[in-house]
């Protein structure tokens, strides 16, 4: 097989689409984190809970996880179409892989949260913060891949 499997021009455009897509997902995760932090602050202050925010946070979470995992596989596909080598950009690949594992872990932990005093709330919060930090690192590594 001769690489790239598709034209360089199309591949270049698809890389930009991938970057824009994942940047959008990252921004949505930051919004999602803000919702979670607002809910957490209210709960810890024993203030009235913001039920519309809680509903939005619960509905958005699984959707964002699917979109985040999809972004990883889109990037993996682009690299395979371009070079045929999965390990072409190792730091970007491994950070993305850690993000996928973290997304799945956060989902599993969130499903175990039951009641207001659940011991899984703090791990969910910490994993969410780690996820946001990794997304920032991934974006900067991705910028290096683009140029």
Report the strand count.
0
Helix content: over 70%
The overall pLDDT average reads 94
Strand content: under 5%
What is the string of SSEs from the N terminus onward?
Answer: HHHH
How far apart the termini lie comes to: 25 Å
pLDDT < 50 stretches: none
Biggest sheet architecture:
none
Radius of gyration: 18 Å
Number of domains: 1
Please count the helical segments: 4
Q: What is the global morphology?
A: elongated
Category from helices, strands and their pairing: mainly alpha
What would your notes on this structure say?
By secondary structure, this protein is an all-alpha fold. It has one domain. The chain is elongated and about 60 Å long. The mean pLDDT is 94.
Describe the structure in brief:
With 147 residues, the protein is mainly alpha-helical. It has helices spanning 8-44, 51-82, 90-111, 121-146.
Keywords:
0% strand, 147 residues, 4 helices
Helices and strands in order:
Blueprint: H1 8-44, H2 51-82, H3 90-111, H4 121-146
Helix pairs in contact: 1-2, 1-4, 2-3, 3-4
């Amino acid at each position: 097989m001769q690489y790239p499997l598709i034209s360089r021009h199309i591949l270049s455009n698809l890389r930009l689409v991938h970057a824009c897509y994942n940047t959008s997902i990252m921004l949505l995760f930051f919004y999602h984190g803000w919702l979670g932090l607002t809910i957490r602050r209210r709960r810890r202050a024993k203030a009235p809970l913001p039920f519309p925010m809680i509903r939005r946070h619960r509905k958005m979470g699984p959707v964002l996880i699917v979109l985040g995992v999809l972004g990883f596989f889109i990037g993996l596909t682009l690299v395979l179409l371009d070079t045929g080598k999965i390990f072409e950009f190792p730091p970007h690949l491994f950070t993305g892989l850690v993000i996928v594992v973290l997304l799945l872990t956060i989902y599993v932990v969130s499903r175990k949260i039951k009641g207001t005093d659940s011991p899984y709330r703090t791990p969910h919060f910490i994993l969410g913060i780690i996820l946001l930090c990794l997304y920032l690192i991934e974006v900067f590594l991705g910028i290096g891949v683009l140029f």
